[in-house]
Amino acid sequence: MTQLTAWPPRTRADCLALDQADPLAALRRRFALPPRTIYLDGNSLGALPRDTPAHLAAVVREQWGRGLIRSWPAAGWIDAPRRVGDKIGRLIGARRGEVVVCDSVSVNLYKLLAAALRLRPRRRTILCEAGDFPTDRYIAEGLVDRLGDGYRLRCVAPTRLAAALDRDTAVLLLSHVNYRSGAMHDLAGLTAAAHRSGTLVLWDLSHSAGIVPLRLAAAEVDFAVGCGYKFLNGGPGAPAFAYVARHLQPRLVQPLHGWFGHARPFAFTADYRPAAGIDRLLVGTAPILGLAALESAIDLLLQVPIRQLREKSLRLSTLLIRRIQGELQHYGLSIVTPSHQARRGSQVSLRHRRAWPICQALIAAGVITDFRAPDVLRFGLAPAYLRYVDAWDAITRLRRIMRTEAWRDRQYARRSRVT
User: Fold this and answer.
1) Among 316, 384, 343, which Cα is nearest to 181's?
2) Which of 160, 224, 300, 351 could form a disulfide with 156 if both were Cys (CB 3.0 to 4.6 A apart)?
3) Is 111 a catalytic residue?
4) pTM reported for the whole predicted model
């Protein structure tokens, strides 16, 4: 990636000019965004593609309403988990037949962690990063508790991951981009380091799929999971995806034996026999409406090179970082996202002891961002629909809030139950 040395723009007018020349400007118009709102939370829930409501309506009206059960074969419902999985595979550098859409990230983590441990029967340790997404840790802890027999979860600082790989490490479980800080791991480098120690690797791509160019097959990644409703814009609760390298699929034994993962799901035999290939990760009936919404969004993303999304993402984050460094640090705001472009995903995270009321004041000012306990304010950058002038205006509004201490307003003092 070329370093963006002649950056950032110096005025709001510069940003407006950049937006006019932006090759992704037409893509922004394909999303339904509320007027007078700057949306900086695409790393939690992606915006609605304009084509999705009509596509869903057609699926409901024609395929479900008229086709009824005939739509399983006729409308391609039966193949949807693999079909949409192959489309996501194009975004993450996977081969055909290595990605399937099903369940949630948590359920897929459980299935793949159990499968990985079975592939390394003489090893007992799952290694993870201290401070990684809590649910990933919960899933690993739950699996370790169920297995007993010396299995353990070991969490170390991110700088110690490579050194912590040893002969007892069965699987390295990592988020590619840290949900709190936005720091991004060297996926290829850590995968290679793990393989040198005989360790399998399971990556959580929830904060990088669809926004960072990935080459899972080229990097020889073993397993991966990812979220459908963040940068992939599949809608709230969209189904997740799972990746398994082709060479591991014949030996994959996952613990949830459901009928859609059976070699002959409609034979209804008493015994379970796993399907060939990636289909053995399936469990229950596919959520067709969720898959339809996700497929509509993926089809939109596939119309632009992911390299362009990444380059604009880096420009946006650099713009935010430079303005914060130059105008806001004396207000007690500190940047926790790495300054080096190769080490950050598509967000800028700030730390402040009053991060919660600052976040609420920003939302009241028309800048939707989010908060992570205890003191982190996150700006998620979705270049598919975020403009340069949006990034500029967000910092201008933040500066006004800090200068006037608007965050001290009593209405922001109480913490909502949903953070």
Assistant:
1) 343
2) 160
3) no
4) 0.95
